[in-house]
Amino acid sequence: MEDDEITAAKPEQTEESGVTEVEVPAAATETLETESQVDEYSEIRSSISKIEADLGMISDSSAKMANEVREMHKLYHNEFASRLKTQQDELERYHEIEKGRVFDGILGDIAKLYSDNETVSDGIVDEKIAKKVRYMLEDMVQIMEANGVSRQKSKAGDKRNPKFCQVVERITTDKPALHDTVVKSRNTGFYKDVRPIIKEMVDIYLYSEKE
Fold it and tell me: What is the pLDDT of residues 127-142, one digit of tens each?
């Protein structure tokens, strides 16, 4: 063979270790690096897919919550507004015919609707809906007041009004000054002139001497 002919590379053996060192082709190294990059890319893609799935779940939950709030709004609006409008229209028709006790039945319905729902807004998380409910309740009061109805609402320590208050619970006390005074009011009552439309429910103190 000629001197310039390329001879095959032979593995070299080190004298100290006796281990044969084999030279790794550059192409093989590049292939390993490429496979490592593919694995890393797959892990990143998998993480992104998980994040996208989590975001989808959050989006679905938010949409469900928003829909529930809308349904609550419809419920309260339909329950209060439609009934209130019907009763107000009926009141106006009766008002043109005559005045007096003919209103009592309708006013009693409005008073009961108010009394049964006056604390509903306290349990509503959405402030916009809670505010609308409070406005509807105030509309009821305005309708009743326009027709001569007054509110009956006792504070703790007030003397019970026997005409417009109904006792729910009697709490024993050894203090004479507290006898027949209000411990707690459970609702708002309404009356017209001297006639109760709906009575206020109250708890009162009942004096009892110590034995």
Answer: 888 888 888 888 889 8
C-beta of residue 151 within 8 angstroms of C-beta of residue 199: no
Q: What is the pLDDT at residue 76?
A: 67
Q: Give the full edge-to-edge strand order of the sheet including 189-192.
A: 149-152, 189-192, 195-198
Cα–Cα distance measured from residue 54 to residue 56, given in angstroms and rounded to the nearest whole number: 5
Query: Residues 48-63, buried b or exposed e (16+ Cβ, 10 A)?
Result: eeeeeeeeeeeeeeee
Dist CA 59 CA 178 (whole Å): 58
- The average confidence (pLDDT) of the chain is 76
**pTM for this entry:** 0.53
CA atoms within 13 A on the CB side of 36: 6
- In this predicted structure, the answer to whether residue 8 has a pLDDT above a threshold of 50 is no
DSSP 76-142: HIIIIIIHHHHHHHHHHHHHHH--SGGGHHHHHHHHHHHHHHTTGGGG-S-HHHHHHHHHHHHHHHH
Query: DSSP state, 181?
Result: B
